[in-house]
């Protein structure tokens, strides 16, 4: 009887092992297969996820700051003229992020009949307000009057220019001073994304398509000062696919949906897509979907990493703005 | 008799023709041979010659200005600390050029024990002096005290920053404003040289080696805004010869004698050598000769145009400084 029980137990264990083995094998092959499959596609460089970790860190920083200096809460003023819907969306994102972190964010919304003098006067008050550490002017200005946007950007005192777009801050970045001013938010976000892939920027070939003041130009400068060999392309560049094919790191900011084709891209490149374009899509209630400047579906078969649109660069821009605001408060507090 | 005279004349003419033909043929073959020979070598892009034509034009401009406004003579203040021999040479060139053009140039030579505060004070006086239209501070500062050269450069009021090195002017150039400030002299000189070759900058591939504030960075920006596709290389660039080989236009400013080898260079490229290096040469009384950053003898077998050192970029830098000074006086005079 004991022997029978022994054999029954043995059989049961053996059967259990076979079941386990089958389960594990299935799991193994399924996982291996999905790894192989994902090897065909580059990984998604989620700005959304990375921005969350940055915001968590900023939240802790702000808490410490308040503990050390009870009077000091970083404060950001967002100035808007008019009420463009896209601007409204971006401002809401910024207000929400600020609230999440513990930054006081005020939204000064001026009517669309505001003229240049009135806007300058509003900025002047904010410049002089010691409680306000950072000031941004949401672009584009939605005014019925002619307003020189460069004049406006330069009217923000450099020590509060948390957008980093003041000509002085642009100049500092150009000549390699990455510390005494503020780095523009989108470029800083792009470089932060690239760093998170583990890709070595130093010595790499970086190609930037676009030379705007907000994205292309400062991103090129920033990558140059991180020791990449940088090539800047634009609307007058010849043989663009050939130039793109040389890029280990590709940053695109041109505002043209799906302009950069997958087969232009070097195998294994890191692609940062700064484009936000409305692309007609009748399947959506809104009638459009958001696409970037890179043909995502094609590109992802070749890249090692690629930012999605939306959910890539956009959230990082907001995170960098918050980071600059906290930095402004810290600098302000230094003796 | 008449017939004999006729034949004699005919013979004489024929003989003369043969002599002429021989002379012409010799001349033809000699010239053709030298053309062939010079086809093996790129043409010299003489900054000395081009600077002379620019100075002639500026001289006329200054004359007209004085006729229109008798009180108005462009005035340039050159501030030097200490007395480095190389600085003395450059300042003499600038004073001479100014005199040649009709610009009043004053040389404020401060002793080497000058400190930062004293230098700032001197600059402040010049900033406030309405007769002074342009101010340059000759670098490097030869002082026994620590002086922040960026602070000094930024202390020159932007409207008199005829060196174009103030951070604001650097920022303007970075974002494409080529008119409201002053373009840095050496980069502006480089671009002027390139234009004079007839080479189309737009759409070309331009490679800049060096990212200094004075040469590399602003030259890259300026070429970018002239619509070249620009690549910036530096000490951390990998495979530099490969990058150089792609350049239609190559600008080198690294301060390393003969660094760029001839066989790196694309056949027919335009090469602008901004280097001024003392190279040991026992055959010379001084013990050295001036060489650029490009191996000139090798490079000229491949280029279409190349600047000599000396006599290339240096004179153009001075010419552009004079141009900026006249421009400063003109701007100052505008209501």
From TrEMBL, chains A, B:
InterPro entries given in the database record: Aminoacid_DH-like_N_sf (IPR046346), NAD(P)-bd_dom_sf (IPR036291), THF_DH/CycHdrlase (IPR000672), THF_DH/CycHdrlase_cat_dom (IPR020630), THF_DH/CycHdrlase_CS (IPR020867), THF_DH/CycHdrlase_NAD-bd_dom (IPR020631)
GO MF annotation list: formate-tetrahydrofolate ligase activity; methenyltetrahydrofolate cyclohydrolase activity; methylenetetrahydrofolate dehydrogenase (NADP+) activity
Domain of life: Eukaryota
Pathway listed: One-carbon metabolism; tetrahydrofolate interconversion
Keywords: Hydrolase, Multifunctional enzyme, NADP, One-carbon metabolism, Oxidoreductase
Gene Ontology terms: cellular component: cytosol
Pfam families tied to this protein: THF_DHG_CYH, THF_DHG_CYH_C
Domain Tetrahydrofolate dehydrogenase/cyclohydrolase NAD(P)-binding: 184-330
EC id: 1.5.1.5, 3.5.4.9
Record bears the keyword NADP: yes
Name the record gives this protein: C-1-tetrahydrofolate synthase, cytoplasmic
Organism: Daphnia galeata
């Amino acid at each position: 009887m004991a022997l029978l029980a022994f054999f029954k137990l043995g059989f049961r264990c053996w059967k259990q092992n076979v079941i386990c083995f089958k389960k594990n094998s299935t799991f193994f092959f399924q996982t291996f297969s999905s790894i192989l499959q994902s090897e065909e596609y580059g990984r998604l460089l989620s700005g959304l996820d990375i921005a969350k970790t940055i915001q968590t860190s900023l939240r802790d920083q702000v808490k410490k700051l308040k503990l050390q200096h009870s009077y000091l809460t970083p404060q950001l003023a967002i100035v808007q003229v008019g009420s463009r819907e896209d601007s409204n969306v971006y401002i809401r994102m910024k207000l929400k992020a600020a609230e999440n972190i513990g930054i006081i964010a005020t939204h000064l919304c001026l009517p669309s009949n505001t003229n240049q003098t009135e806007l300058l006067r509003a900025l002047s008050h904010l410049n002089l307000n010691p409680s306000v550490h950072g000031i941004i002017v949401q672009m584009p200005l939605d005014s019925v009057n002619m307003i020189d946007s460069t004049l406006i950007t330069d009217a923000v005192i450099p020590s509060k220019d948390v957008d980093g777009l003041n000509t002085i801050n642009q100049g500092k970045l150009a000549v390699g001073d990455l510390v005494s001013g503020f780095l523009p938010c989108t470029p800083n976000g792009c470089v932060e994304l690239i760093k998170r892939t583990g890709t070595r920027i130093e010595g790499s070939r970086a190609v930037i398509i676009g030379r705007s003041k907000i994205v292309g130009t400062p991103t090129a400068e920033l990558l140059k000062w991180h020791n990449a060999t940088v090539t800047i392309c634009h609307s007058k560049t010849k043989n663009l696919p050939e130039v793109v094919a040389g890029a280990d790191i590709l940053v695109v900011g041109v505002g043209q949906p799906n302009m950069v084709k997958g087969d232009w891209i070097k195998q294994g490149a890191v692609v940062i897509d700064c484009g936000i374009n409305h692309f007609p899509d009748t399947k959506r209630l809104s009638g459009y979907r958001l696409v970037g400047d890179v043909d995502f579906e094609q590109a992802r078969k070749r890249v090692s990493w690629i930012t999605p649109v939306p959910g890539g660069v956009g959230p990082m821009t907001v995170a960098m703005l918050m980071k600059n605001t906290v930095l402004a408060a810290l600098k302000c507090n230094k003796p």
